[in-house]
Amino acid sequence: MKCLPLLILFCVLHAFPAHSAEITITVKGIRNDKGNIAALAFVNGKGFPDRVELAKTQNVVPARQGAVTLVLKNVPAGLVALTILHDEDGDGKLKRNIFGIPVEGVGMTGKPLGNRAPRFEDAIVAIKADEKREITLKYW
């Protein structure tokens, strides 16, 4: 009898699979055609904002001065932080100066970027279904 509640919980969790969404992102403010624009979705602070390998899902498109549109597929419904990186030199990493300030463009959901490193908590947005977002890059 002790196993019955666990069995019911297991069945309920597997009967309703986790929903995922498709996010169409228009990235604005791209300063040149060099490199790539990467969109990353994080479900926790681990690796946020620029550790590509730790993002839950990602997409990369060639940069185009002005704006590009890209799609992030299989974004888990719930609280997510989205980050956009302009990888101008194409090395797959966010380049920073000796003070740790990015020298390539960065954008994110949530609160606007200030003059300090962004925190995961500041970038969280609620994703319920497929949607469209606009994110403007910031260059320091």
Characterization of this structure:
With 140 residues, the chain is mainly β. The chain has one domain: Immunoglobulin-like (Sandwich), CATH 2.60.40. It contains two helices and eight strands, in the order αββββββαββ. The chain has helices at residues 3-15, 120-123, and strands at 20-30, 36-42, 57-62, 66-76, 78-87, 106-108, 124-127, 131-136. Strands 2, 3, 5, 6 and 7 form a five-stranded antiparallel β-sheet that branches. It is globular. The model is unreliable at 3-17 (pLDDT under 50).
Question: What characteristics describe this protein?
Answer:
single chain; 140 residues; mainly beta; Immunoglobulin-like; 5-stranded antiparallel sheet; 3-stranded mixed sheet; 2 helices; 12% helix
Quick rundown:
The protein is built from two helices and eight strands; from the N terminus they run αββββββαββ. It has 140 residues and is mainly beta. The strands form two sheets. Strands 2, 3, 5, 6 and 7 form a five-stranded antiparallel sheet that branches. The chain has a three-stranded mixed sheet with strand order 4-1-8, with no helix packed on it.
Q: What layout of secondary structure does this protein have?
A:
Elements: H1 3-15, E1 20-30, E2 36-42, E3 57-62, E4 66-76, E5 78-87, E6 106-108, H2 120-123, E7 124-127, E8 131-136
Parallel strand pairs: 1-8
Antiparallel strand pairs: 1-4, 2-3, 2-5, 5-6, 5-7
Rounded to the nearest angstrom, the distance between the terminal CA atoms is 62 Å
Approximately how much beta-strand content do the residues carry? 35-45%
Just name the CATH architecture: Sandwich
User: What is the class in the CATH system?
Assistant: Mainly Beta
The CATH topology annotation reads as Immunoglobulin-like
Catalogue the unreliable spans: 3-17
Alpha-beta content class: mainly beta
Number of strands: 8
- Strand count, sense and closure of the main sheet? 5 strands, antiparallel
Mean pLDDT, as a whole number? Answer: 87
H/E element order: HEEEEEEHEE
Q: What's the domain count?
A: 1
- Overall outline: globular
Number of continuous helical runs: 2
Helix content: 10-25%
Rg estimate, integer Å: 18 Å
